[in-house]
Amino acid sequence: MSRIGKKPVKIPAGLEVSVSGDLVEFKKGSVQKVLDTKGNVEAKVEDGELVFAPKGSDRQSSAFWGTYRALGQNIITGLTEGFKKQLEINGVGYRAAVSGNVLELQLGFSHPINYEFPKDVQIVVEKNVITVQGNDKQVVGQIAAEIRSFRAPEPYKGKGVKYSDETIIRKAGKTSKK
Q1: In what order do the strands lie in the sheet with 23-28?
Q2: Nearest CA among 70, 78, 1 for reference residue 33
Q3: What percent of the chain has pLDDT above 70?
């Protein structure tokens, strides 16, 4: 069993963390995030660190212990550094452009795909690389996955939208019979 819940989460300078009942509030400037532990885990701020502990000795409390610790760590990382995913577009005539909060993709279909994204997420396009940035790990990952799903990379020519660190396993094409 993982013991990730035992590790305390360091609170960096400039970030305020307060615990009231089952709610843990993270505040940096005007940005505020709330983590609801739903009564399974208890959280405390001790010596500049956020510490989680299971409320009961049952299996479910132990399972949520590490989960809420990881969620707390992700909120702190998002508010201090942010999260970023990069996607690459490969294919002749495949293009992307951003206007306001709409990403316009031309991926070989008869029509362009207009993808509207939330205001708290930034999308930047440079040549054939789309960069998705934000302070919520789940939202950044979900948006990157949705963009990739519009035209997933195919194994023969590698055309489509892929993550920059993803490797596409290529297949051999047809061979003639002789």
Answers
A1: 16-20, 23-28, 31-36
A2: 78
A3: 99
Distance between CA atoms of 67 and 140, rounded to whole angstroms? 19
pLDDT > 90? residue 176: no
Q: Put the strands of the sheet holding 49-54 in their side by side order.
A: 9-10, 49-54, 41-46
Q: Report which of 143, 116, 146, 148 is spatially closest to residue 132, judged by C-alpha positions.
A: 143
For residue range 89-148, list pLDDT tens digits in order.
999 999 999 999 999 999 999 999 999 999 999 999 999 999 999 999 999 999 999 999
How many angstroms separate the CA atoms of 162 and 156, rounded? Answer: 14
CB 9 within 8 A of CB 44: no
Is the pTM above the cut of 0.85?
A: yes
Neighbours of 75 (CB within 10 A): 24
CA distance 17 to 4: 20
CA 81 to chain centre: 13
Between 147 and 40, name the one with better pLDDT: 147
∠ at Cα 74 (115, 130), nearest 5°? 30
Question: Of 77, 110, 80, 79, whose CA–CA distance to 93 is shortest?
Answer: 110
